[in-house]
Amino acid sequence: MLKYIPSIQVLTLHPTSMTFMSLRTYRSVCTLVIFLLISRLSYSQNFYAVLVADTKDPSLGVSCEKDMEEMSGTLRTISNKIKYNYQEVICIQDKFGKNGIQEAILKIQCQPEDIIFFYYTGHGINTTTETSNFPILYLKDENLELETVHRLLKEKKPRFCLTLGDCCNNLFSETRSMRSATPVLKGITVTQDSLILHKLFVEANGDLLISSSKKGERATAHPNDGSFYTNTWKQALAYAENHNTHVSWETLLTDAENRLQESLKSFPDSLKHHSQWVRSFPETVLPCPQASFTEINRFLNVLADEKLSFNERNKLRTLGQKVFFNLAAQVSIYMSDPEKPVETQPIDHFLKRVVNTAPLIDEFNFVERLSTLGQGCTYDLVTLQEIRKKQ
């Protein structure tokens, strides 16, 4: 719905006044007025972002500041691509508290077509008596449940409301785990496709609540590079935007979770955590859910998991080949630019090579938009990025 803009006055000229103004000037004025109208109308909806970060925490502050800066840039870019006005409120330092969050929410003057995005990075806890499976935000003045924040934001009645908390969700007060190892960065920028962002943020009419850990788990962060889940969430979003034709929140969040587990696979079980989410809107039905990019990515990366025995990976290869690919399917492999593959192989040869050389492979990324889906939801052509481990 477009809002009425009362501040623009359209200049009207009677034909007889053309003696005082050249036809060229008249057209220029009309063009300028039309441009101003279109510009104002195109950006009439608001994208509200409330970013809350524990930047003063002695162990987590640097990581949280990194999270906040990068999430701000990501959301600003999304808002621009879907042609929404970006309205940002940052709650840090003195504003990092229940009062600061409530003040930020009160400032939101939401219209039915607007979007609200709430992001928290910091410490979180939970208790055995807490009924919610989502974390409690560990703030400087008074703690606040993430689910309560989500409810307050939904009461603003936006078109779409997304609440994301990247924090611990364990049953006692303890700092979020800090890891010295650099998180694996996955996915590369190829194109900028605003249609994918439009599907996710504009067509999804409802709300979505996400946390980086399930009840009883701690979240992880890197001292300099930020939180692991925030990174994998942004990577999954960028990857879907740049590499896929079909996407839904379910497939994107599943991809983010797969990337999170891939980045944590070398950690002890006590440091592993799993994201969770709840949505209110109906899920987008993909043409072939069983052949979605998340399912193929998962298959290929498990196939290259050297922790599995050769026999296990070989058995998985046989099953997966029948499910996802035609007998005569070809695999187009690239390293950095999917438009310039370095090699094309028959699917059978490719999968056997993966099984035999798993210790050399770090990751696969499936590019849906450059792949060809044949009959029966199996692929004739598969385009993917192969990332080798550093030697």
CATH topology of the largest domain: Rossmann fold
> Level of helix content?
25-40%
Oligomer: single chain
- On the 0-100 scale, what is the average pLDDT? 82
How many beta strands in the DSSP annotation?
Answer: 17
Total domain count: 3
Shape: globular
Q: Would you list the SSEs in sequence order as H and E?
A: HEHEHEEEEHEEHEEEHHEHHEEHEEE
The structural class is alpha/beta
Number of helical regions: 10
Q: What's the story with the biggest beta sheet?
A: 6 strands, mixed
End-to-end separation in angstroms reads: 55 Å
Report the uncertain regions: 1-21, 23-42, 178-192
How would you describe what is shown here?
The protein is of the alpha/beta class. The chain has 3 domains: 1-44, no CATH class; 46-279, Rossmann fold; 290-388, Nuclear Transport Factor 2, Chain: A (Roll), CATH 3.10.450. The chain is 35% helix and 21% strand. It is built from 10 helices and 17 strands. The chain has helices at residues 23-42, 61-81, 98-107, 146-154, 194-201, 228-243, 249-264, 293-303, 310-324, 347-356; strands spanning 46-53, 85-91, 115-121, 124-125, 136-137, 144-145, 160-166, 177-178, 206-211, 220-222, 226-227, 276-279, 325-334, 343-346, 361-366, 372-373, 379-388. The strands form 4 sheets. A 6-stranded mixed sheet has the order 2-1-3-7-9-12, sandwiched between helices. Strands 13, 14, 15, 16 and 17 form a 5-stranded mixed sheet that branches. Helix 6 packs across helix 7 (249-264). Mean pLDDT is 82; it is low at 1-21, 23-42 and 178-192.
